[in-house]
Specification:
10 strands; six-stranded antiparallel β-sheet; four-stranded antiparallel β-sheet; 147 residues; alpha+beta
Length: 147
C-alpha cells in the first residue's frame, strides 16, 4: 500500500469514527436494566416524546415537545422508583426568562410520573405546572452509552 493510500485510509477512519460512535448506545427496555446501568455508573441518556404521554389534567392535551437529557444525578428509592430531574433556563411567553424544572419518577411497573414546573425569573414564582403519565419504551426511552 502506498504512503498516500495509507494516509487516505487513516483520514477516512478518523472522519468515520463519530458515525460509528453513534451506534454505540444500547436501549434499556425495562426498569431493572435501567437500575443496573445507573448503579454501575454507566452514562444513561433518555429521550422523550411528551405528546405520547397522558396529561393528568382532564381535557388538556399533552405538550407537543420531544427532547432528551443525560441522567445525572438520580435517586433510587426503597420501593425501586428511580427519581431524577433537570433544571434549565429558557424563554417563556413574551420572551421572558423562566426556569423550567422537569422531574421524572420511573416506577417499577414501567409508568413514569413526569412534572414540568415553570418559574418566573428572578423571583421564582410558579407560572405553570404540568403533570403527565408516561411509559417506558413508549413515550420515554432510555439508552446506555458505550465508550
Amino acid at each position: 500500500m502506498t504512503c498516500f493510500l495509507r494516509k487516505y485510509v487513516a483520514a477516512a477512519a478518523c472522519l468515520a469514527a463519530p458515525l460509528f460512535a453513534h451506534a454505540q448506545s444500547i436501549p434499556l427496555d425495562d426498569v431493572p436494566a435501567l437500575t443496573r446501568a445507573l448503579m454501575r455508573g454507566q452514562a444513561v441518556r433518555t429521550s422523550f416524546d411528551l405528546s405520547r404521554c397522558r396529561n393528568d389534567s382532564s381535557g388538556e392535551p399533552s405538550p407537543a415537545v420531544s427532547g432528551g437529557l443525560v441522567i445525572d444525578p438520580f435517586n433510587l428509592l426503597p420501593n425501586g422508583t428511580i427519581a431524577f430531574s433537570n433544571t434549565h433556563f429558557t424563554l417563556g411567553p413574551g420572551n421572558q426568562p423562566v426556569n423550567e424544572i422537569i422531574r421524572f419518577r420511573v416506577n417499577t411497573d414501567r409508568s413514569i410520573q413526569l412534572t414540568i414546573t415553570t418559574l418566573s425569573m428572578p423571583n421564582y414564582q410558579p407560572l405553570r405546572n404540568i403533570a403527565l403519565t408516561c411509559e417506558v419504551g413508549n413515550s420515554v426511552n432510555f439508552f446506555v452509552q458505550l465508550f
